[in-house]
Write a structure and sequence with these properties.
190 residues, binds ligand FNR, alpha/beta, 5 strands
């Protein structure tokens, strides 16, 4: 059977991003038969609808990577109770032009890390709302909300909290199952 290709999207540009570190941990926890590559959002300009018919190269490359993936794993920070602006901006770009969204039907899972105690809960529910309009099937459980992130990663960025590692592993397993069963994943289309 072909490998399931998961694309992990890092919703923070910060060098020491806990969300980036969480996706690095996920790369170690991915089930056999699947692979997780990461995409960072540096270089994606601010969305301007006047340029969506002649998309910047960075956006075309971002869309190409989404389209080539069988599934998407979002790692979102929480900024003022919502997703980061850079993540929303990238989501908006890849949903355009109208009728040519890269997201449609792509199986997805959501996780997030924050220094607050609620672990991006509010941001994740906003993200899940966005995924409705993008028409992406989403893993419901487990919800991976990594609160008090500074306590769960070591100074080198390794996720040391074992229950969180187990949750991420379970989430990845559920995402792979969803991708295998999804009628509109890249796997089925090719
Ligand atoms: C935050 N942070 C934050 N945390 C939280 O739990 N709820 C929130 O609403 C916010 N709001 C917020 C707004 C802005 C503008 C910033 C810069 C930060 C703190 C946030 O969780 C923390 O900076 C994380 O470390 C961000 O994720 P990365 O960059 O580590 O992936």
């Amino acid at each position: 059977m072909d490998e399931i290709k998961i694309l992990g999207i890092v919703g923070s540009l910060r060098k020491g991003s806990y969300n980036h570190f969480a996706l690095k941990a996920a790369q170690e926890l991915v089930p056999d038969g699947a692979v997780l590559s990461l995409v960072e959002l540096h270089g994606i300009p601010v969305f301007d609808q006047d340029t969506e018919m002649a998309m910047p190269a960075a956006v075309l490359e971002f869309k190409r990577r989404i389209l080539a993936a069988d599934a998407i794993l979002f790692a979102t920070p929480e900024y003022n109770y919502s997703v980061s602006g850079v993540l929303k901006n990238a989501i908006d770009w890849a949903s355009r032009p109208y009728g040519e969204s890269a997201w449609t039907g792509k199986p997805a899972a959501v996780m997030g890390a924050s220094t607050g105690s609620l672990g991006t809960a509010r941001a994740q529910y906003h993200l899940r709302q966005i995924l409705v309009t993008l028409d992406m099937p989403v893993v419901n459980q487990p919800e991976v909300m990594i609160g008090n992130a500074a306590l769960r990663f070591d100074p080198g960025g390794k996720l040391t909290d074992e229950p969180t590692r187990q949750q991420i592993q379970t989430l990845l397993g559920a995402l792979v199952q969803l991708a295998k069963n999804s009628p509109r994943s890249t796997r089925q289309a090719t």
